[in-house]
Amino acid sequence: MKRRKELNLSRRAFTKSAALAAGTAMVGTPLRAATSKPKTLKIGWIGAGDRGAADIRFCLDADDNIEVVAIADLFPDQVKVALDKVGKKFQDRIKVTKDTTFFGFDAYKKVLEMPEVDIVFLTTPPFFRPVQFRAAIEAGKHCFVEKPGAVDPVGVRSILETTEMARKKNLSVVVGMQQRWMPQYQEIVKRVQDGEIGEIRHVGAYWIGTMMTWHWQPRESVKSDLEWQIRCWPQLTWLSGDCCVEQLVHNLDVSNWVLGTTPLQVVAVGGRLARVGDQYGTVYDHFAFDFDYPGGLKGLGINAQIEKVTNKVCNTITGSKGEASVSRGHGFLIGPKGRYEYKGSMDGDGPMHQAMCEGIRKGEPVNQGQILCEATLTGIIGRMSAYSGKPVGWEWALKQSKLDLTPKQELSFDKPFPMPPVQMPSNTELI
Ligand SMILES: NC(=O)c1ccc[n+]([C@@H]2O[C@H](COP(=O)([O-])OP(=O)(O)OC[C@H]3O[C@@H](n4cnc5c(N)ncnc54)[C@H](O)[C@@H]3O)[C@@H](O)[C@H]2O)c1
């Protein structure tokens, strides 16, 4: 069980950081060095959209000695809206000027060339992550990296290599898996792993919801094919990885965390029930995954993005002596000792950014790149199985799959940019 050992090691390192973060959260004050004024950390923000704006707010809230000094994006309107979302509260800490706002597919390189930038926030659509992450670590920047890490196995291998490069360079890789920092998840996972519901028999990962038109706009709203695809990126597999990679990744990560390992194999199905027609790109709107984990354990994954469905977003764990359930809004378990319900703070974003800043200042950066790779690949093998109609093995996907969703043609807003066909078992080979 070599993998389990590796993962346990990284979990120990993580727990140390999480404990540090929790300690800071209890004190409840922004980070300050005891004796001297701490260095002002400067952020370069790549991908100024909705989640990036939230991440920037969480970070500026977590540490009062942080500034944003540069932005890279494709579209000026996105930057304006994102800065409005960051809001008046932080206005004096947004030190971005006309000269440090860059546009275009190479804009991220301009941010990375700025010596004063300490941390980059990578909050572009997932397709761009492997290349931008590699460039950021090569440029010697600490990284905050949104999930997922990639859209295909080739991208996951790149992220893994870059994670290792970051480790060697002592650079931070904090990833947008805020559940890892949410106290209710930490408490429930710990209690389950300590045996409070007996031996783990089954894990369930659910994100069933209505986000069918998230970031969607009609095709007619912009001229360029590619601009439409990028603005509607969750609808395109090459940009998002599909909803099971972009969204269910959070819950799949929790299943892996609870079990302390990754799946061996998956068999999946999925399809387009409500996303009918080209205006909904190429992604599916529902998936069901049957994962085999080591030791004969089974994992279920269900993901849906369909208008008017009932929401169910949580993780469940069934044990030989009880059961547990945890989400962004609850955490409880029922075992031989009765019912335990978590009642404290459920904030993960604050502790996550505090831990990142504290790690950087102490020279002990948090590196969660492996967690990101493992969760991302779990979603990717699920999608590959549903698209191809075949079982997909973890080791094969990690080491041998050549699937690379990078478009063959140059990314240009001035030329036609046709969408790839919707993938189905009838037209999809496993590669
Ligand atoms: N952790 C979470 O809970 C959470 C929640 C939502 C989204 N996310 C993740 O955050 C990321 C961003 O999602 P979002 O909702 O902010 O999307 P968004 O569309 O609002 O923002 C993406 C931004 O990136 C820009 N962009 C696109 N391609 C670019 C490129 N090549 N170079 C520079 N800029 C580029 C876009 O113009 C846009 O402004 C995604 O990976 C998503 O999965 C995480």
Description:
The chain is of the alpha/beta class. It has two domains: 2-179 and 349-369, Rossmann fold (3-Layer(aba) Sandwich), CATH 3.40.50.720; 183-345 and 377-399, Dihydrodipicolinate Reductase, domain 2 (2-Layer Sandwich). 37% of the residues lie in helices and 20% in strands. The chain has 14 helices and 15 strands. The protein has helices at 2-27, 50-62, 76-86, 107-112, 129-138, 153-168, 183-193, 225-231, 237-240, 243-246, 249-259, 349-362, 369-388, 394-399, and strands at 41-46, 66-73, 101-103, 119-122, 142-145, 173-175, 200-209, 265-271, 286-293, 297-305, 312-319, 322-326, 331-335, 338-341, 392-393. The strands form two sheets. A nine-stranded mixed beta sheet has the order 14-13-12-11-7-10-9-8-15. A six-stranded parallel beta sheet has the order 3-2-1-4-5-6, sandwiched between helices. A hairpin with a 4-residue loop joins strand 12 (322-326) and strand 13 (331-335). The longest helix is centred in the N-terminal third of the chain and has 26 residues, at 2-27. Bound molecules: nicotinamide-adenine-dinucleotide (NAD). Nicotinamide-adenine-dinucleotide is lined by residues 46-52, 72-75, 78, 105, 107-108, 123-126, 128, 146-147, 176, 178, 215, 230, 246.
Short description:
37% of the residues lie in helices and 20% in strands. The chain is of the alpha/beta class and 431 residues long.
